[in-house]
Amino acid sequence: MSDNIDTRVSLALHPDNVKEIEGYDDETIAVLAPTVTAFSEAYERIRTVWDGRAKAEKNPSWNENQVIIETDQFAQKQLAVIAKGFDNTRANLVKGIAHLEQELTAPVTSKAAHSVAAEVRAYVKALPTGERMKFIQDAVANGDDVSATAVLGAPPYLAGIDANMQSVFTRMYHERNAPAVSKRLKVMVAAKDMIEQRAGIVFKELEKAVGCPPHKAKALREARTASEKAFALRDVA
Fold it and tell me: 24-56, pLDDT tens digit by residue?
């Protein structure tokens, strides 16, 4: 965690938390950059609300209620920007995750000659269930593309497995052969989860910075508006 920490703001919103995601490194820094920005935006804007309140309290013409009203109006503007940042970042992560999921579940093309692939499938199908699963798993893990794709590149029943099991092994095959894609997907899912779990903290943090719950600030604002209208009517009269 960096030294740029403000104890007035929840540490859960500090952008350095994103850098603690497993897999964050030079290869994934660009993928996670928007998430870092979103948290940084939230953290810094909440700080500005605290700073704004501190300055408002020094205004001799404002009482506590006026300070709350002005601070809350400022906080609502910051909330709109923060929410938009989190929403856009999450939406882009969802799209990116869906794209990578497609890559990791795409159909496999057999790399063996037709006759060889058929023999491999026949061999695998004749194995007991436990040995059959182990054979396929070992073929994928050990980079035996001929055997693995012979099973995964044809209808599953030809090798004695079901569609769900073929999907599992296909995912394993792609992850082994495209580790960078798998890594990006993992950090993007973690980033999305972090946003979903922590973005809601912003509301409480802004409430603390304003000094009261939103409904109280709204009531004070409405009372002020009502009184201003009353004086305006007197002027007209």
Answer: 999 999 999 999 999 999 999 999 999 999 999
Taking the CA atoms of the chain, what radius of gyration do you get in angstroms?
A: 29
In 39-181, DSSP assigns E strands to none
Among 185, 200, 204, 199, residue whose Cα is nearest residue 21: 185
Q: Count CB neighbours of 46 within 10 A.
A: 25
Domain limits of the chain? Answer: 11-106+194-231, 114-180
Query: Residue 232 and residue 134: Cα distance in Å, rounded?
Result: 83
Would you tell me how many other CB atoms lie within 10 Å of the CB of residue 117?
21
Contact 217, 72 (CB under 8 A): yes
Q: To 10 degrees, the CA torsion angle through 164, 166, 171, 174?
A: -160
Place of tokens 């095959």: 173
* Distant-in-sequence, close-in-space partners of 69: CB < 8 Å, separation ≥ 6: 217, 220, 221, 224
- CA 180 to CA 137: how far, in whole Å? 21
Alpha-carbon distances, residue 27 vs 24, 160, 183, 204 (angstroms): 8, 39, 9, 35
In this predicted model, what pLDDT tens digit does every residue of 175-214 receive, in sequence order? 999 999 999 999 999 999 999 999 999 999 999 999 988 8
Please, what is the angle between helix 163-177 and helix 179-198, to 10°?
A: 100
